[in-house]
Specification:
About 40% of the residues lie in helices and about 20% in strands. It has 28 helices and 36 strands. The chain starts with a strand and ends with a helix.
């Protein structure tokens, strides 16, 4: 089955594809497009003009037939189940029909699935292409430079699963060729260690067996991974797939391709390190993890403990981030600050770099809930990036599960769908490492196809179906070998080798010596070849210094007095040095080979003529060094060694034969061209019909554009409303800042000023143009040397800070630093407020002074309102009928109290108390009015138990806050003393 995904700009590519596609290939073609559910598609009519195969727009479930073209209808998603194409309604949320179909095709067709991604925007098709690649199928993409919209092809290329990048005109040929000519490896894997044979052994030639061993050695040298520990069936299938992609028929030939192509070596390594994952893969398993495991981990941690998780074989990081999201949510549910450390490891450094970046295509929206997308991701055009909060919880590192020592004391160890690719003995070694890493009462999370049945001592099942286990005790019967070295696994030996009676993968000293001797012979031969045919050369780095010499360079070298140096200008003659330097710089800057004119120079009284070649040497697409080669040109009279003579007549005859065959081919091409010209008239007639169909499609596109324009207008109106609301809120904030009258400065994370209130100018020397400047550049009136450090600490810890500091004018200020953060953007900062509290300090001091006096003291306002009272006044009032201080406490009017006492006996002659109250009223009133400087009064204030006398004084207060001070002191003891004396 060949699935073709296309979106914007894909019509022309589809037409080109089917024009070049044969009609009897035996394959079924399924075209998946992004179609508007509101408009009828004309795609069936358009494509039926480009191919003789039946083209059918499905409207119900249909059985698949070869040499048919099936189209997805608008408003639907399509899946393949067995030999039936099934339709279902498209959901209103983000729908990825190409990914959905490709994934189902990979599951049902495996290595017989071919996915082709054509022009389109977004990233739909990327996840499905990864699934096809993992199943052993072929993934082709249209050349992004040819595609009208390169978003979808580029996304698949960045994922690293595109087997070939071709123009649309060559995609059909390549897909059919892959289908018709599969590679049949003559070498078959031997039985798995400790298990039954995976396939019956077939005796190959020894050369093929040695080639396979050399491939393993090459992979080990490049990646540090011994793939002999991986399942032989998987390795051979993947190896055969790469040979089929490269159209190589034998392992020996493929080894030559591998040695000469770093790109193919990388592709093979990526192919063997199968990377199939997604967010919350196997939703039921993650549901159990979320409900039954994660809460137990968080509840079992103390306030200062950190949740430790190891995700082995993390691939591109989706499952590691999924577990991190669950932990963050669990900590939030327990109202605790997340303390999480997840160690995500893999042997593939490319995957680790991708995972560490945390940037994924927008198609992951189909895997992650909208709530989690909003909390843990930020949108950037066609990509989603994990938030800094989530990213800080993970550490990505390279780790070989079979070779490196395991982590320890882990609350959770997850290794899902990784062990299934190992041989049985390697699975046991890996499982022991994983179990060793789990602490007591910790958890082990495996894939649905994995089990710990043979080595589960000390573990108890939490959920057998979803393969979640907990450690209940330590297994003391088996030890763990955590040494870094790993012995080669058995299983990749030829039948001929097995027939000799030797065990697979056991190399005796004689065989090893032969290999070493063979390598030395090859090295010697290669060096002789270079010395015989290669010109003398120098490799120079970007600083134009020699880093390697090849051949006899004595005629071109010279020494100079002074400091030793490998600079070109120091080791070459002046004539050569100037030219070589220019050529090296030119080759390094342009990345192209350059050559000089013949140069004549003299060394040791000998005149020589030479051409200088400068060739750039690239690594990963970037020029890292330059190869300077010196080709001598022999002058007249010089002799040189003449190679062995050849038969020129035979060479000429062979050349003539080739030319004659080319001439015959040209004649055939000419005849074909004549026939094509005769049919041009028919094609031109068909063009009119196609133009009419195109006109209908353009009309449909116009309606779609009008609909999109309406949606854009709606969104624009919503944005305008939000901008208006934002402006209103901004105005309210500015008005509130001015109305509060508090010096306020808003700072971002770098302590740059984003906003300040007008009152802040009284403390800081600020101007409107200072917005955007760092606060530490602004002078202020505070004696506060640690201001900047306190602000940094507040932003870092998110804890508010308050200080009372003194200004240059002696005033007391309260400085408050409050942190803030914007969760949607991750921006952080602080708000700095400064309030003059000198008056509050002075009032507090005054209160302390009058509280220390034994007299009953009250401070009055200009209208007689009691503003302050001391402790003696309060005690007396509460003890004499005013426990709540309603009549004699702060806020009551002293003159009103005196007036009420003056009218206490309206029906009789004024008593002595009323007379005293009237005199007090008049005296205090005159003090408040300023007509009297002092006032004093002796008056009785008897209680039912005893007779009491008091002495009252009143005096004005110089200032703006208070008007007068009234004091009462009990003098009863004075009267008793006078009475005794009398």
């Amino acid at each position: 089955m060949i699935g073709i995904g296309a979106s914007a700009g894909g019509l022309s590519a589809l037409e080109t594809f089917f024009e070049t596609c044969p009609c009897d290939s035996g394959a079924a073609f399924v075209v998946i497009q992004h179609l508007s559910p509101k408009h009828e598609s004309l795609m069936a009519d358009l494509l039926s003009r480009r191919t003789r195969m039946p083209v059918k727009m499905l409207d119900t479930d249909s059985k698949i037939e070869p040499d048919h073209v099936y189209l997805i209808p608008p408003g639907a998603v399509m899946r393949v189940e067995g030999d039936v194409l099934k339709l279902s309604p498209r959901s209103e949320v983000l729908s990825l029909p190409i990914d959905i179909f490709f994934a189902s095709m990979a599951e049902n067709f495996g290595e017989n699935a071919i996915g082709i991604v054509l022009s389109g925007t977004g990233s739909d098709g990327t996840r499905g292409s990864i699934a096809i690649n993992a199943a052993g199928g072929l993934v082709l993409i249209q050349d992004p430079e040819e595609a009208k919209f390169d978003g979808m092809p580029l996304s698949v290329r960045r994922a690293g699963v595109a087997d070939e990048v071709l123009p649309a005109a060559k995609l059909a040929e390549r897909a059919i060729l892959h289908h018709e000519h599969p590679t049949d490896l003559s070498l078959r894997p031997a039985p798995d260690a400790g298990g039954s044979p995976e396939a019956p052994p077939v005796t190959p030639v020894q050369a093929e067996s040695d080639a396979l061993e050399a491939i393993f050695d090459t992979l080990s040298d490049e990646s540090g991974i011994d793939f002999r520990s991986y399942k032989s069936t998987t390795i051979m299938r993947r190896l055969g797939r790469r040979m089929q992609v490269r159209r190589v028929g034998s392992l020996r030939n493929y080894l030559d391709v591998l040695v000469n192509s770093a790109e193919e070596l990388t592709a093979l390594r990526r192919e063997l390190l199968i990377s199939v994952t997604r967010f919350f893969r196997d939703e039921e398993s993650f549901k159990v993890l979320e409900e039954r495991v994660i809460p137990r981990i968080v509840e079992g941690l103390s306030r200062h403990d950190t949740a430790r998780v190891w995700v082995a074989g993390c691939s591109t990081g989706e499952e590691a981030y999924s577990i991190a999201m669950l932990l963050h949510e669990a900590f939030g549910a327990h109202t605790r600050t997340p303390q999480i450390k997840i160690f995500a490891t893999d042997v593939n450094e490319d995957n680790l770099q991708f995972a560490a970046a945390g940037t994924y295509p927008s198609s992951i929206a189909a895997e992650v809930s909208p709530e989690r997308l909003e909390r843990f991701f930020t949108q950037d055009r066609e990509t989603l990036t994990v938030s800094a909060e989530l990213r800080q919880s993970l550490v990505f590192a390279r780790h070989d599960l079979l070779a490196d020592a395991p982590f320890t004391r882990m609350d959770l160890v997850s290794c899902r769908n990784t062990l299934i690719y190992f041989r049985r003995d390697a699975q046991e070694r890996a499982l022991k490492r994983l179990q060793y890493a789990v602490r007591h009462n910790g958890f082990l999370f495996l894939g649905n196809s994995e089990s710990i049945s043979a080595t589960q001592n000390g573990f108890q099942s939490i959920d057998t179906t979803n393969k979640i286990f907990t450690r209940v005790s330590h297994d003391k019967r088996s030890g763990l070998d955590v040494s870094s070295g790993t012995a080669p696994a058995a299983g990749f030996r030829s039948g001929a080798a097995q027939g000799t009676g030797r065990q697979p993968m056991r190399h005796d000293t004689t065989e090893a010596a032969k290999r070493v001797e063979k390598g030395l012979v090859v090295d010697t031969a290669m060096q002789a070849l270079l010395d015989r045919w290669a010109p003398p050369s120098i490799i120079v780095n970007s600083r134009y210094e020699a880093v390697h010499f090849q051949g006899d360079l004595r005629p071109y070298m010279r020494t100079r007095s002074g400091k030793a140096s490998l600079d070109l200008t120091r080791i070459l003659p002046d004539t050569l040095a100037a030219v070589a330097s220019v050529l090296a710089r030119k080759a390094y800057e342009t990345g192209a080979e350059v050559v000089s004119e013949p140069l004549e120079f003299k060394t040791d009284d000998t005149t020589r003529v030479v051409k200088v070649y400068a060739s750039p040497v690239s690594d990963a697409g970037a020029t890292t060094s330059v190869l300077l080669s010196f080709e001598p040109i022999h002058m007249a009279g010089e002799t040189c060694s003449i190679p062995q003579q050849i038969d020129l007549a035979a060479v000429a005859q062979a050349r003539i034969d080739i030319l004659e065959s080319q001439l015959d081919a040209t004649r055939a091409d000419l005849q074909s061209t004549i026939e094509e010209l005769e049919t041009s008239n028919e094609e031109l007639q068909a063009t009119n019909e196609e133009l009419m169909a195109s006109n209908e499609e353009l009309q449909s596109s116009n309606e779609e554009l009008q609909s999109v324009n309406e949606e854009i207008n709606t969104v624009n109106a919503e944005y305008q409303e939000k901008v208006s609301l934002l402006n209103r809120l901004n105005g309210d904030l500015s008005s509130m800042i001015r109305a509060v009258g508090v010096a306020t400065v808003f700072l971002d994370e770098t302590l740059s000023i984003t906003r300040f209130s007008p009152d802040a100018c009284s403390v800081f020397k600020l101007r409107e143009s200072d917005v955007g400047r760092p606060l530490e550049d602004i002078a202020h009136r505070l004696k506060y040397t640690t201001l900047i450090e306190d602000i940094h600490e507040t932003i870092r810890t998110e804890n508010r800070c308050e200080r009372e500091v003194v200004g240059d004018d002696g005033e007391l200020y309260r400085v408050r630093i409050v942190p803030y953060s914007i969760q949607t953007s991750g921006q952080r900062g602080a708000v700095l407020t400064i309030m003059n509290v000198t008056v509050y300090r002075d009032v507090a001091r005054l209160q302390g002074i009058i509280d220390a006096l034994p007299e009953h003291v009250a401070v009055l306002d200009f209208d007689g309102t009691i503003m302050l009272t001391n402790a003696a006044w309060t005690r007396f009032a509460r003890a004499n009928g005013d426990p709540n201080l309603n009549r004699s406490g702060p806020g009551a009017n002293y003159l009103e109290i005196c007036r009420e006492a003056n009218t206490c006996a309206p029906d009789m002659e004024k008593c002595e108390d009323a007379l005293s109250a009237a005199r007090a009223y008049e005296g205090v009133k005159e003090i408040l009015e300023g007509s009297r400087a002092t006032f004093s009064l002796e008056y009785p204030c008897h209680s039912p138990e005893q007779e009491r006398w008091f002495y009252m004084t009143a005096a004005p207060v110089v200032g703006r806050e208070f008007a007068a001070v009234v004091s009462h002191i009990e003098i009863t003891s004075w009267f008793k003393t006078l009475g005794t004396q009398e």
